[in-house]
């Protein structure tokens, strides 16, 4: 795990240094002329003239003491820039994940139980379209609907005042992102349920006279849900990708939106810290899912 | 291997089929959703290839008087702010979308197959190193990695392909590696080696053909993802640059600003992206059922 994170940090750092043009170029671009001495001074101030390995060690050293450097754009400490934005994205992601499980799991079960009926086909086509709709287009369509029919635009303008406002404001973008995940969860739940329902113990339960409901929800679902937990872990990573776009569309000041802005401005300290944060969250979620798996399935034990 | 299954399936269904056309029709009836996907794919490939003939206008030609024209008989899907015909831009956009999608899958697939084959066949330190590398790449969401790659390479058609193909490598490499690991223990591989073939030749001539079926399935599944990522990158302004008409960028240009006055600028490019990805997904699903029966859901 640590090795993975170190590897990511090296790759990200090198990739960012490969970018054509640094912040100094961008600053002088807008000024219209370039004074080499001035430019060298700024580069020196920001430590951009040092060899890349030295810059890397400065960054790692800082990270260990929670000092992520200063944003080139706002000149504020990166920690202060990121701090208020993280909870916003975290709430959005949690809402989206909740949304996708709430819809994906029950619909998947229904599909499996009603396999090859018209309902099954309809739900499968809807779920496939969920995997095909770009989340930014879905977001734009929702915006368009609100503008045309409700004469209201549900984008982030001022910070929400109370919890209810916040929930209303976030639930629309969360649904736009979560739609895709719910489609994936639905598909997996369906195939996993079908797989389980072919097994011998289900036939045994049936022959003992257990009711359909008892078999479907008591015997089958418990085992079918196992592989679904894995995909929920993977989806959490996908959600972060989806949020990058959705936060941009809905103008939500979260970290994902901030990442795009920082990349466009070549704001290295912000970009590298954010990408590391995303990697850390992904690695931790996968680790958590592994642990959860062992809890849910007593047959799995991790040797220490 | 896959061929034998087809034959069994055909016989089981009691179908008396001969020839490619009959076979195709049999599968089309058997997998109606897949057939729809195939038709959508064919339409998109067709419009990508013959974009120059099909498009009623030049996709780059601007007409001031047509600015933000709603759908009319002249501009069937309306025109954008600069008076460029949307239909022509969408038809030409299919070319960009499919080119980037297919090229990045081929590039990522080639590297992935190479890494997976070598790592599963040679094992040892090479395998260990590659597995670590793949772990690292998988710790970042596809779009985040593509975003950083696209930004660091700079905006151009080739760089967009590169930025999308690299994050696709881990999946391919893993599928190929696990298939290779089980295949290398098979008697026919041992026989080939006993006959004095070089390791390289065994890997390419005997192992590779046997993992083609899962690979084709994976590639079609990734085509949809690649098209989506291209659209997303272009939407964020880090993908295919002007003057190429890219569906994603058409949306970002029209976003928020024109939602109220020119909804056709938002609806049609998005519809094109969704349909293309939908077709690829439907087709990929059916292909998986046909070629890889073990994964059948």
Task: Write up what this structure looks like.
The complex is a heterodimer of chains A (304) and B (297). By secondary structure, chain A is mostly helical. Chain A has 13 helices and no strands. Chain A has helices at 2-18, 23-31, 36-45, 52-64, 78-82, 85-113, 118-132, 135-150, 163-197, 200-207, 212-249, 255-264, 268-296. In chain A, helix 1 (2-18) packs antiparallel against helix 13, helix 6 packs parallel to helix 9 (163-197) and helix 8 (135-150) crosses helix 9. The longest helix of chain A has 38 residues, at 212-249. Chain A is elongated and about 85 Å long. The relative contact order of chain A is 0.14. The mean pLDDT of chain A is 78. With 297 residues, chain B is mainly α. Chain B has two domains: 1-30; 36-295, MetI-like fold (Orthogonal Bundle). Chain B is built from 13 helices and no strands. Chain B has helices at 2-12, 19-30, 32-49, 51-54, 86-122, 124-138, 142-153, 157-183, 187-194, 199-207, 212-235, 247-254, 264-291. In chain B, helix 5 (86-122) runs antiparallel to helix 6 and helix 9 (187-194) packs antiparallel against helix 10 (199-207). The chains are: A mainly alpha (304), B mainly alpha (297). At the A-B interface, helix 1, helix 7, helix 8, helix 9 and helix 11 of A face helix 6, helix 7, helix 11 and helix 13 of B.
């Amino acid at each position: 795990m640590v090795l993975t994170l170190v590897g990511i940090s090296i790759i990200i750092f090198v990739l960012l240094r490969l970018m054509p043009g640094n912040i100094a170029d961008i600053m002088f671009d807008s000024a219209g002329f370039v004074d080499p001495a001035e430019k060298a001074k700024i580069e020196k101030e920001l430590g951009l003239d040092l060899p890349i390995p030295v810059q890397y060690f400065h960054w790692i050293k800082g990270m260990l003491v929670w000092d992520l450097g200063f944003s080139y754009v706002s000149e504020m400490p990166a920690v202060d820039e990121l701090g208020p934005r993280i909870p916003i994205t975290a709430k959005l992601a949690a809402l989206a994940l909740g949304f996708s499980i709430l819809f994906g799991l029950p619909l998947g079960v229904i599909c499996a139980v009603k396999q090859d009926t018209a309902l099954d086909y309809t739900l499968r086509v809807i779920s496939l379209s969920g995997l095909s709709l770009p989340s930014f287009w879905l977001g734009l369509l929702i915006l368009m609907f609100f503008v045309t029919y409700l004469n209201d635009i549900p984008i982030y303008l001022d910070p929400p005042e109370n919890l209810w406002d916040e929930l209303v404001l976030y639930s629309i973008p969360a649904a736009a992102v979560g739609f895709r995940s719910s489609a994936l969860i639905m598909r997996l739940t369906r195939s996993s349920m079908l797989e389980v329902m072919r097994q011998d113990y289900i036939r045994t339960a049936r022959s003992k006279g257990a009711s359909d409901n008892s078999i479907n929800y008591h015997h089958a679902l418990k085992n079918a849900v196992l592989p679904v937990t894995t995909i929920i872990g993977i989806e959490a990573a996908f959600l972060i990708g989806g949020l990058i776009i959705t936060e941009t569309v809905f103008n939500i000041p979260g970290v994902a939106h901030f990442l795009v802005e920082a990349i466009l401005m070549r704001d290295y300290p912000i970009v590298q810290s954010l990408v590391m944060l995303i990697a850390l969250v992904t690695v931790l979620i996968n680790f958590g899912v592994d642990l959860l798996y062992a809890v849910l399935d007593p047959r799995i034990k991790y040797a220490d | 291997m896959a061929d034998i299954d087809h034959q069994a399936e055909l016989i089981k269904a009691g179908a008396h089929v001969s020839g490619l056309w009959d076979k195709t029709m049999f599968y089309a009836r058997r997998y109606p959703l897949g057939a729809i996907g195939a038709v959508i794919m064919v339409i998109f490939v067709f419009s990508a290839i013959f974009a120059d003939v099909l498009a009623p206008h030049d996709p780059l030609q601007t007409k001031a008087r047509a600015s933000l024209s709603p759908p009319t008989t002249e501009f069937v899907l309306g025109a954008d702010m600069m008076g460029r015909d949307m239909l022509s831009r969408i038809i030409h956009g299919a070319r960009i979308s499919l080119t980037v999608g297919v090229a990045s899958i081929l590039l990522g697939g080639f590297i992935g197959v190479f890494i997976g084959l070598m790592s599963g066949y040679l094992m040892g330190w090479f395998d260990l190193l590659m597995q670590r590398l793949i772990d690292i790449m998988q710790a970042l969401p596809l779009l985040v990695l593509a975003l950083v790659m696209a930004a660091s390479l700079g905006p151009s058609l080739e760089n967009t392909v590169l930025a999308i193909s690299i994050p696709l490598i881990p999946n391919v490499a893993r599928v190929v590696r696990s298939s290779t690991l089980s295949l290398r223990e098979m008697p026919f591989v041992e026989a080939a080696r006993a006959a004095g073939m070089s390791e390289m030749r065994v890997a390419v001539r005997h192992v590779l053909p046997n993992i083609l079926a899962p690979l084709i399935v994976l590639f079609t599944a990734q085509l949809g993802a690649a098209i989506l990522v291209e659209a997303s990158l272009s939407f964020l302004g880090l993908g295919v640059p002007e003057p190429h008409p890219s569906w994603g960028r058409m949306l970002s240009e029209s976003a928020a600003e024109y939602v109220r006055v020119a909804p056709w600028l938002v609806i049609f490019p998005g519809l094109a992206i969704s349909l293309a990805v939908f077709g690829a997904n439907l087709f990929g699903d059916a292909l998986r059922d046909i070629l890889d029966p073990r994964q059948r859901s």
